[in-house]
# Entry
Amino acid sequence: MNVIDYKTVKKRGGRKKRKRPLHDRPTDEQRCRNYNQRKPKIGKLFEPLKVTSDDSEEAVAKEIAEKLNESKTMLIQRVVRCIGCEKALKLFKDTKEIQNHGGMWTHDRQRWRTSGGVFLALLKNRYVTKEQSKWIFAVENELMKKKAKEQQQRMKERHKKEVTDLRLKLKQQE
# Structure
């Protein structure tokens, strides 16, 4: 068994991280070995759309959300409202093309993006400015902040309850 002595590299902030030398790291081809062999899931995504750019924004958004199997329909409606029906349908076509050719990795390359994830990633990278992106995702970000705050409150209450229970146990033991 070969033991490779990896160099210890100092990162910013004083933390050390072990990094493998370049010749020991897997190449993109090795990392994505099954990329070309991945078969896209045949589902609603590859069925033809029943709407055109002449239809209402709500109808286009509803159809796209259904084909993408996206539960966040309000987000898709905000996308269509922001970029228009024609661009939204073009974006859907691009998403379909990418999924047909094997899909797209998440940023950390741990898993494949869902069809809705590919749609939103393409939207951010190619179709909207940062201001438009902030407007589209404003409601989602607020919901996430609200959920995080609620969870933090639940954790505080749980911690308080555990502390009071421990104090009662200590008093009973004395």
About this structure: The longest strand covers residues 7-10. The first helix runs from residue 28 to 31. The chain has a mean pLDDT of 83.
